[in-house]
Amino acid sequence: MLASSVRYLPRCARRFSAWRPQLAKTKVSANAEAEISSGSACWLLGCRHGSKLSSCFRFHGGSVVAGFQPSSSFHSSTALYDEVKTVVTPGFPESVAEGDVRWEKAVGDFVGEDESVGEIETDKTSLALLAPASGIIEELLVPDGGKVVAGQEIYKLKLSGDAPAKKAEPAAEKPAAAEAAAPAPPPPSQPSSTAGPPPSSPPPVPPKPSAPMASVPTSSVKPTPAKAGAAPVHLTGSRTEQRVKMNRMRQRIAQRLKDAQNSCAMLTTFNEIDMSNIMEMRNKYKDTFNKKFNLKLGFMSAFVKASAYALTDQPVVNAVIDEQEIVYRDYVDISVAVATPKGLVVPVIRNVEGMNYADIEMAINEMGEKARAGNLAIEDMDGGTFTISNGGVFGSMFGTPIINPPQSAILGMHAIFDRPVAIGGKVEIKPMMYVALTYDHKLVDGREAVTFLRKIKSAVEDPRVLLLDL
């Protein structure tokens, strides 16, 4: 039982004010000091830090208090934070059955509460493994790269309130003697400054042979064998290679792209867009747009809005085949391809048909930040009726995108380059972009595909078309 005079945090006293201790500052008695230094765990007043009494008081910076009368059932313990907790995997989304674990910490490492211990890579996204409490990793129950399912035990954590003190590194020993100076190389030999006089006449020409040259068939010529003991050819540079396991996201991407090639009758049609007007509008209003919405006005919003306009005009491109039926959607959900270090992800912007430029830019910015931070949820990538892939950010001039199944079409954007264009019988230099539409010919005919792409072209080249609904 603790002595009546103890040091503790006043905040903890307020938390348990039902005990109504009479508090008054005084010196700590010898008995209390002895029990504090003996290592009793801080169960006093329900303190949740789990440190020993002395370290808990130092942590809180508490004052010296006397007059506390604990109840008869109140006791002290010496093993609060010696507990070893077995941590299990978090719950998976419904469409995910298993994943591969990637450890960021090793056995013996200290982790704080909510600090990342590793992550679980699934087919669609990565799930972070956060420490439930501060402590030291005792054992990893699953090797790096191993498969795990929801609710599986993956590592053991020894609970600890404070990080262990770092050991002082030994000073590097100084070398006993300095290295001997390398002898200076001998000076290069200088060429002789004196040269003989030039020849007075050219050398004689060899006589022309009078007999015809003998012809030998090439088939009868035998290769000369290499001389024994010839030195082997030495290759310069590194010729090493390494094998790295393909992560689950990359495996899923490869499978889906190959499935698209096997199941879709893909055909691609092309067009080019004059970006002069949209670039002029962007340069004129980008500062005002940034000031009002705190966002940069880009070209992506113009193509997303133009695609929603064209999908409404050509609903078959927004449709999908479901067995023996065609499903027409009255809404437009556009998937925007985003490149991440782990692979390509396609977050979905929903109900684009009712958005303006600012709404689209805010949605693209939000999804892009979540994708780069690895915080995209499965729900952020589910669905989608049409996809836009912008290879122009990497400098691509021309390409044919692959359909993102089960969708029926995908738009490919490319880089903007100045090119000569015939306008009104004259050649002018214009900023031009090639665009490509890959579509499933099982559902979409060439007329609808070409009309769809021309609608995008007209809406980007002259945004007034959207206002007039032409």
TrEMBL record:
What does UniProt give as GO cellular component?
A: mitochondrion; oxoglutarate dehydrogenase complex
Q: In which pathway does it act?
A: Amino-acid degradation; L-lysine degradation via saccharopine pathway; glutaryl-CoA from L-lysine: step 6/6
Query: What's a Gene Ontology MF term here?
Result: dihydrolipoyllysine-residue succinyltransferase activity
* BP terms from Gene Ontology: tricarboxylic acid cycle
Ranges for the region named Disordered are 162-244
Q: What class of enzyme is it?
A: transferase
Q: Which UniProt keywords apply?
A: Acyltransferase, Lipoyl, Mitochondrion, Transferase, Transit peptide, Tricarboxylic acid cycle
Q: Which stretches are tagged as biased composition: Pro residues?
A: 183-210
Question: In which broad location class does this protein mainly occur, judging by the first location in its UniProt entry?
Answer: mitochondrion
Localization, per the record, is:
Mitochondrion
Identify the InterPro entries for this entry: 2-oxoA_DH_lipoyl-BS, 2-oxoacid_dehydrogenase, 2-oxoacid_DH_actylTfrase, Biotin_lipoyl, CAT-like_dom_sf, Single_hybrid_motif, SucB
Q: Where is the Lipoyl-binding domain?
A: 84-158
Cofactor(s) needed for function: (R)-lipoate
Functional summary from the UniProt entry: Dihydrolipoamide succinyltransferase (E2) component of the 2-oxoglutarate dehydrogenase complex. The 2-oxoglutarate dehydrogenase complex catalyzes the overall conversion of 2-oxoglutarate to succinyl-CoA and CO(2). The 2-oxoglutarate dehydrogenase complex is mainly active in the mitochondrion. A fraction of the 2-oxoglutarate dehydrogenase complex also localizes in the nucleus and is required for lysine succinylation of histones: associates with KAT2A on chromatin and provides succinyl-CoA to histone succinyltransferase KAT2A.
| Family named by the database record | Belongs to the 2-oxoacid dehydrogenase family.
Do you know which NCBIfam families this protein is assigned to? sucB
Q: What is this protein called?
A: Dihydrolipoyllysine-residue succinyltransferase component of 2-oxoglutarate dehydrogenase complex, mitochondrial
Originating organism: Littorina saxatilis
Give the taxonomic lineage as stored in the record.
Eukaryota, Metazoa, Spiralia, Lophotrochozoa, Mollusca
